[in-house]
Amino acid sequence: MKMWVTEQHMQQFRTKGFFLLESVMTDSQLQGLRQAADELRAEADAGAAARETISTRLSKRNRYFLEGRYREKQAMYDFVHSDLLRDVCTSVLGDNVYLFVEQFVVKGPGGRELGWHQDSGYVPYPHPRWLSCWCTLDDVCEENGSLYVLPFDRLPSSEIVKHEFDEEGIDEIADFGDDPGDPVTAPAGSVLVFPSTLPHRSVPNRTSGFRRCYLAQFSGEPIMSKDGTKVRNLADPIVLGGKPVRPEKAA
Ligand SMILES: O=C(O)CCC(=O)C(=O)O
Question: How far is the CA of 109 from the centre of ligand 1 (A)?
Answer without folding.
Answer: 16
